[in-house]
Structure formats: C-alpha cells, structure tokens
Design goal:
CATH architecture of the largest domain: 3-Layer(aba) Sandwich
Number of strands: 11
Shape: globular
Number of domains: 2
Order of helices and strands: HHEHEHEHEEEHEHEEHHHHEHHEHH
Number of helices: 15
Distance between the termini: 22 Å
Structural class: alpha/beta
Strand content: 5-15%
Strand order of the largest sheet: 1-9-8-7-4-2-3
Bound molecules: pyridoxal-5'-phosphate
Oligomer: single chain
CATH superfamily of the largest domain: Type I PLP-dependent aspartate aminotransferase-like (Major domain)
CATH topology of the largest domain: Aspartate Aminotransferase, domain 2
Radius of gyration: 21 Å
Helix content: 40-55%
C-alpha cells in the first residue's frame, strides 16, 4: 500500500508472462495505437501523446529539456527543481508551509513578483504530501501571465481527472507504476500545439536525443505506420498498459474517478476517527490517490512500520529510513490507494492492520474504529 509502484491486476501479470512482441510492424502498431487512444482519453486531449520508455522522471526530464533553455526562469515545486537546474535554467520554488497546496493565489503572487517567467512546472498530485493542487484554477493564472504550463501527473493520471485541453496545459507527463497499475518503466507524455511552437522556435537545440520530444514526434510522423517509437520501447510494458487501460475503460473513467474519491474519503475519515491528523492542511486539496498522516509524538514509529510490514505483510509509505533521508517525509506515514489498491478489500485490510499495529505500540485507539468508519463510507456490510 505504498503510493507506487502499486499492485498489478491478475490480467496484467498474466499478459506479461507471454512472449513480448517486437517493437515494430502491424501487430505492435495496433497495440501501441490502442494504448495512445486510451491515454488521450485519460489526459483529456485530442492532441499528441507519446510513450517514453523510462520511469516517471523520464517524462519530467523530457518536458523540461525540450521546452526550457539555459537562463530561462521557471516557477516550480520540489518535483521539477533539479531537472530545471540541470538545463541551466533558474528554478523559483513556490514557498509554502508543509501540508499546504499550491494555489492559484500563490502562483499569481510569484508571477507578479517575477518578470519574464517562461513556465510554471508543478505536480498535479503531490505524492509526498497527499495533496492535489488545483490545476484548473492555476492554469487560468498561468495563462493570464503568458507562461507555459508543465504538469507532473505521475500520481494522478488514471485516478484523478486531468483535463489537458480544457485547462490549457502545454506538457503533461505521468508514470506507469502509479494509478495506471503496471510496473515502472513507461512515461506517457501529452504535448500541446503551443508547446510544439515553443520547441520549434528554441534558440539552441534540445541537448538530448533520447528525451527530446522531437525524437518522438519525428518517429511518429515518419514511421508511425510501422515503427511508432524512436527507440526500442518496452513492448511487454506496452502490452501490460493496454490490458490495464482496457480494464479502466470497461469500468468507465467517471466511475474510476468516483471509486478513488470514495476510497480516499473512507481512508481520511478512518484516520481522523483514530484521532490521527492528516498532513494536508485544507482537506479540499486532499489527494484521492495517497493519504499522508502525521505521526503522533512519543510513539514508536519504527516498531509500528515494521510490525505492519513483517507481521501483517503490508508495506505503507515512508519506511523509517526515509524520515532521515528526505525531510519532506519526516514524522508522517502514507497510505497509497490508487489503481488496483483503490479498492475496499485492500483498504479495509490495511486499516485493520494499522489499528492492530497502533495498539501494539500502546497508541490509544477504540477497537475496530478505523475499520468500521471506512466500512460505513464504503457501504459494505460484514
Ligand atoms: C509526483 C511524482 N513525480 C515524479 C516522481 C518520480 O517518478 P519516478 O520515480 O517514477 O521517476 C514521483 C515518484 O514517486 C512522483 O510521485
């Protein structure tokens, strides 16, 4: 129950056990095109969508390296900062307290203070803090200031609505191991017409071949009917993605989004019923794919986390070593509920185990309170 990689459907695992197809010719092109058509529905775009072979960061790096040039100014968050700096651009980080969303007001303030900002690059869903930033509102402010909008939908695509065309996003990327529920290794990327204009009119060439979005466009235009990607893609993962996306389509995207919203609400209410606090300060921005919970002072986190992992076989986010390695995770734990794990069986089992692990460290908690609270919201009778 970590916030990615998530568990895969049985049908995904079974299709991956078959021999992977070649990365070219009719059979593969048909699979690839079907995947791209379904991804367009998830992104909410009629424009270009590509599949980069690499983890979610490959999509982030492709977005930045293709659009941003040395000396450019980019307003950003913790997810893009290093990619921006790597191309010799200036990253202006949106200052906010832990647990606070990036709001349209915050972005507006920064864009008023800074002139000639080329782009705003931020996460739609901040996985580390369990926060969904209001991109619909942010996009209006970004457009008002004439900047590009680059969005990381690594932990939202396929679980929380993304409206690429409607919101006027320029580049949006995701990762296969989160709500798309297949193993890590594919990064879907959507690109707007305006983004292409900016790329074509760059002052200096894109300093990358593998992650240049132009490489993907060129392959699609020149060889799309027989070799749709510029390099050998992970065909096993493309087949897995088709199976997983077909399952989402069968369920219906609106129902998929509702399922995630309901599961997330059940988890949040269960957390509060245990007198624990959510990390997100304003629940309107609480994520539907991951819930971050503040750890109560004075209780043994190491014992709690390892008891869940070793005794109950459940891995939740933020193993104790992570607290020391990355301050953003300190004094909190995270429950992932995306893709396959956004499901009552997974969530109720996890909440039950969390209650037991809390009792083991003498945290005062009423018997079955988390389980029963969530069960009521999920409308399940046991
Ligand atoms: C919002 C977000 N962006 C980017 C990344 C980086 O993705 P990856 O580790 O797949 O490269 C993550 C990973 O967890 C993430 O949650």
């Amino acid at each position: 129950m970590i916030p990615g990689p998530t568990e895969c459907l049985e049908e995904v695992l079974s299709c991956m056990s078959k021999p992977p197809p070649a990365h070219y010719m009719e059979d593969f092109v048909a699979i690839y095109n079907e995947v791209i058509a379904m991804l367009k529905q998830l992104f909410g775009t009629s424009g270009d969508v590509f599949l980069i072979t690499g983890s979610g960061s490959a999509g982030l790096e492709a977005s930045i390296i293709s659009l941003i040039e040395p000396g450019d100014k980019v307003v950003t968050d913790e997810y893009y900062i290093k990619f921006i700096q790597a191309v010799g651009a200036r990253a202006i980080v949106v200052e906010r307290k832990r647990g606070e969303a990036i709001t349209a007001e915050l972005i507006d303030k920064v864009l008023q203070q800074e002139n000639e900002v080329k782009a705003v690059a931020i996460a739609h869903n901040d996985t580390a803090q369990g926060i969904t930033n209001p991109i619909d509102e942010i996009s209006k402010v970004v457009k008002k200031h004439g900047a590009l909008l680059i969005i990381d939908a690594v932990s939202s695509l396929g679980a929380i609505p993304v409206r690429f065309d409607e919101w006027g996003i320029d580049v949006c990327s995701s990762g296969s191991q989160k709500a798309l529920s297949i193993p890590p290794g594919l990064a879907p990327v959507a690109v707007s017409k305006h983004a292409w204009d900016v790329i074509i009119n760059r002052k200096c060439p894109i300093p990358s071949r593998y992650l240049s979005l132009l490489s993907y466009r060129e392959a699609h235009e020149k060889y799309g009917d027989w070799h749709p990607t510029p390099f050998t893609t992970s065909t096993a993962l493309v087949v897995a993605l088709r199976t997983s996306l077909q399952s989402l389509m069968r369920e219906g995207l609106e129902r998929v989004y509702e399922r995630h919203a309901k599961i997330a609400r059940a988890v949040r209410e269960a957390v509060k019923a245990a007198s624990l606090s959510l990390l997100v300060k304003d629940e309107r921005y609480a994520s539907n794919t991951v819930t971050a919970v503040k750890w109560p002072d004075g209780y043994d986190y190491v014992k709690f986390w390892h008891s869940l992992y070793n005794k109950f076989g459940i891995m939740i986010g933020n193993p104790p070593a992570q607290w020391a390695a990355w301050p953003i995770f300190k004094d909190s734990f995270r429950i992932g509920h995306m893709g396959r794990t956004a499901n009552p069986d997974y969530v109720l089992t996890t909440l039950c185990a969390i209650e037991k692990a809390l009792r083991e460290i003498n945290y005062p908690i009423k018997e079955r309170i988390m389980f029963e609270t969530a069960e009521k919201i999920l409308g399940i009778k046991t």
